[in-house]
Amino acid sequence: MEKGRIVILGAGESGVGAAMLAQKQGFDVFVSDFGAIATQYKEILEELRVDFEEKQHTVEKILSAVEVIKSPGIPDKAPIIKDIKKKGIPVVSEIEFAKRYTNAKTICITGSNGKTTTTMLTYHALKKAGFNVGLGGNIGHSFAALVATAEYDWYVLELSSFMLDDMHEFKADIAVLLNITPDHLDRYDYKLGNYAASKMRITQNQTADDVFIYCADDPETLKVLKTTNVSSKMYPFSIRKKMESGAYLESNIIHINIHLNDELTMSISELALQGKHNIYNSMASGIVAKVLDIRNTSIRESMGDFKNIEHRLEHVAKISGVDYINDSKATNVNSTWYALESVGTDVILIMGGVDKGNDYTMLKDMVHQKVKAIICLGKDNKRIHEAFEEDVEIIVNTFSAHEAVQVAYHLAKKGDTVLLSPACASFDLFKNYEDRGNQFKTAVKEL
Is there a binding annotation on residue 445? Predict the structure, then answer.
């Protein structure tokens, strides 16, 4: 391709990483963000001396591109994307662009839930085994920023469905699909089938030399597999049935079988991450490690000493016999279900925020069994009240993390768990889920 103008839409982690790499590759780079650009990213663009604009899109400048790199948050319905496509300018994701400039192998992990944990766990296992490995994508640094500034042999990448939508030539050497549950359906015409097809793009361009790891217990994955042609070696994992090759659970022992006569077994009590969903995450990571011929002792160690990320079932404190847990990263109903599944009974649940068309019915049984009070934390809590008024005696509205924690403190008795697991986005009262989690932790520490 001639080194013409590359236009990058969106100046967050993904867009700024793409700008770094495009400039390094000798393109004329223009970055355009319809919103305001965060100070940290503006400083990088200024340092690079890259031409950029914020709070607007200058259409003529954008339409002079040989290619457009679109940040994952921008939907195809956006008027500027329609204009670009009408003119026939190719639109790609930052991941697609970055892969052109590295010969490193990629391990790509997607799924509605558990992908961050599984990505971190897989990275931890490779690093512990001495691999020269980078971590990026939807977590930490963007893939493009890493390719521009580092030399790795392997990358472990967390990929969202939005990232996958704009990947065309890209191929994952090892692809992992954890599960498919309703999320972001507003971007997929409210059709689960469209979202599932988007997740299956993780297998595109794979050959018989590549690997696809998936959950054999996930109904939506099994459904979409029937209509998807997968060329790679497939390794399923299950906690319900025995797998000839892949991973399965039997009498609380995980078995991972890739090569004959070299089975890895591990008791679930040895896992650093507890809860049923984390058995799945650990199995998926374990299969990756076995595919890469990492020694069983090394895999066991990494599965046993892993520390999970901030804001995902993070234990904040125990005060007067009450546990306070920060699960602010739970921005959909399924994540909150997983959180409730992994804690005991007598839960005071803090939830709410920007509702993405949530269907709360899947939470009803779990809430009925385990939750004694719901504290709503959001501007509009009507749908939470409607969903759970028959299952919980106490539902209270609060409008700040401090107020929510104070109310929880007064409601909680010794042995209870106060769980922040919102099931919603955070943008009504907070900058993002990290801000929500940090404010919660500050409020707990002030008790």
Answer: no
